[in-house]
Specification:
mainly alpha
Length: about 200
Amino acid sequence: APVPDALAVAEAAALWRLGRGTEAVALTRPIASGEAAPRARFIEGLVAADARDPAALDAARAAIPDGPAADRVGDRAELDGRRALLGSDWAGARARFAAAADARQQVRDYPGLARANALGAEAAERGGDARAAGDLWLRAGRAAAAEGNSRDARAWLTAAERAGRAAGDAGLVRGAREALAEQAGEEAQRRRRGDDGPGAGR
C-alpha cells in the first residue's frame, strides 16, 4: 500500500535531520499536491540550503503558498533566512530567522524554535555581533536541552560560551557554563537510566 503523504513527509524530515538529504527528497518529490505538499517543499528547501544550491532553494520557497498559518509562515521565513545566509546577507538572515522563531513559538514547535534561534546566532556571529549570537545560542541550547536533544544542546551552549568570551560578556559566559553543567548532569542521569533521549533535531 502507498505511504500516506503526511507519513512520508515525517520520514523525510527525520532523514534530513540525519543528514540524508537525497533520500529525504526522494520521498517528498512525488508529493505534488494536498495538505502535505507545502511541508514537502520546505524539506526540499532545507536540503537545497545544506547543498548550497540557491536555485533549488528558491524553487522550493516559491512553491510554498502564502497564507497566515503560523507553521507555513515559519517555513517560509526559515527558508528566506537560509537564502540570505547563502547570499552573505547577515542582517537580512537575522531578521528572517527572528520571524521564523516567532512563528514557531506561536505553534509551540520548540525544536523549530531552537533551530531558528541557532540559525539566527550563526547570522549574528558572521555579521560580527558576538553578544547577540551568544544570547541566541544560549536560548537555542536551553530549548534543545529541554527537548532532550543533547547533541545540539551541547554544541549550541558551547557556542554561546565562546561567543560570550568574544564579546567580553561575563554574564553570558556564566549562563552558558551553568547550562552546560546542567546538561551534563541530565545526560549522566539518562545514561544511568539507559535512556539516550530523542535524536537530535537540526
